[in-house]
Amino acid sequence: EDFLEEGGLDYRLKVLAVVPACCANEYGVREAIKNAQEQLKENEYVHAKEVMERVMHYAVKKSEYFVYGREKTLKALEMGVAEAVVVAEELGEDVILGVVLKAEEKGVKAEVVPRGVEESKTLMQAFGGYAALLSTPAWVLEQ
Fold first, then answer.
1. pLDDT, tens digit, for every residue of 36-50?
2. Residue 3 half-sphere exposure toward CB, CA atoms < 13 A
3. How far apart are CA 102 and CA 31, in angstroms?
4. How crowded is residue 13: how many other Cβ atoms within 10 Å of its Cβ?
5. What is the pTM of this model?
6. What is the DSSP annotation of 79-103?
7. Per-residue pLDDT tens digits for 104-115
8. Where are the alpha helices (DSSP H) in 26-88?
9. Are 81 and 141 in contact (CB under 8 A)?
10. Rounded to whole angstroms, how far apart are CA atoms 61 and 119?
C-alpha cells in the first residue's frame, strides 16, 4: 500500500489487487499469492476473453486475414505472415513451447489461452486449438 501511495512502483507494473501478507520475505510473498488467487484467476479469464474476442473478430469480419488449425497456423508462422498466433493450453506443454519459441524467433506475438476458461474450449472445438491472425491475406499461404 505504501508503494502505491508514494508512487514507488515501476509504471510498467500492473497492480491487480492489494492483499494482506504477514511479512516481507519469501513466506509473505507466498501468502500474498495465495490471498490473490481469485483476482489472478479473474485477470487470466479477462485476458483469455479479450484474446478470443480478437480471434472471433478476425474469423468473422476479417476472415481473409485469419487461418486456423495446426498446419495453416504453423505455416503462417514459418512464412512470417502471422502477426499473432493463439494456441490452447490443452495442446500440451511441448507443443506450446515449440509454438512460442518459433513465434519469438519470428518476432510474432504468441498467446496461450489457459485450460479451464470457456474460451479455451471454443478455441479447441472451433479451431483445433490453433489460430493465426495474419498481416497479409491468407491466399499468400497457398502459393
1. 777 777 777 888 889
2. 9
3. 36
4. 8
5. 0.73
6. HT-EEEEEEEGGG-HHHHHHHHHHH
7. 999 999 999 998
8. 26-35, 37-61, 70-79
9. yes
10. 19
Taking the C-alpha atoms of residue 84 and residue 96, their distance in angstroms, rounded to an integer, is: 14
Cβ of 64: how many Cβ atoms within 10 Å? 11
pLDDT for 34 equals 81
What are the C-alpha distances in Å from 42 to residues 37, 47, 49, 116, 118? 8, 9, 10, 12, 13
pLDDT of residue 116: 81
Contact by Cβ (8 Å): 76, 68: no
Whether the CB-CB separation of 16 and 39 falls below 8 Å is answered with yes
Residue 84: strand pairing partners: 109, 133
